Structure of Methylthioribulose-1-phosphate dehydratase:
Amino acid sequence: MASVAIAADRTAGTGPQDAAWNEAVAQIIRAGQRMDQRGWVPATAGNLSVRLADGRLAVTRSGGHKGFLTPQGVIEVDVEGRALHEGDRPSAETLLHCQIYRRFPGLGAVLHGHSVASTVLSMLTRESSLHLADYEVLKVFEGQTTHDTRLPVPLFANDQDIARLAREVEPHLADMKAGYIIRGHGVYVWGPDMDTALARLEGLEFLLACELERCKLKGGAS
């Protein structure tokens, strides 16, 4: 991936807090490039965030292509999703990131992508979850030590009322091992740091792509 240069404005500085911010921004930019390369953030879709040690969140600004992020495309919000600088506009979906951070205090990064596999599979089934079983790659998820398991990935109806959607998700968060999917929309995956979150996203997307291929071969869906 290309190196990331932080512009000389309020997103950069020389103190310890500024260094932490700069690193968070660089991680988000690199992750956006990676997700774009894999086709998981088409057009202006998707959003990415990192939690700093002081509790601030670095999150992608509303709109903009995630494969071509600049430091100005990342803004500061608090854990309730409120922008910390006048004029900044976070995505409405920032509330879903904040919900996840509040639920898991040790969390460091949240990723939201819109892949073909997650979008299509979530619209083909009437079940409340997709079930992934017998794949070696399942071991990328926390607590999974064998392929011989069955891992549910919850599905939720898409809703432009993000606060209402968050209320639907909340009761299920504690049991999610591999993130969740919004039907016809995309996935949410998280981890203690950006590298882990990216690995889990890549693992989930690989498994969803496998499931989509199996569905094509069977000629139908559940």
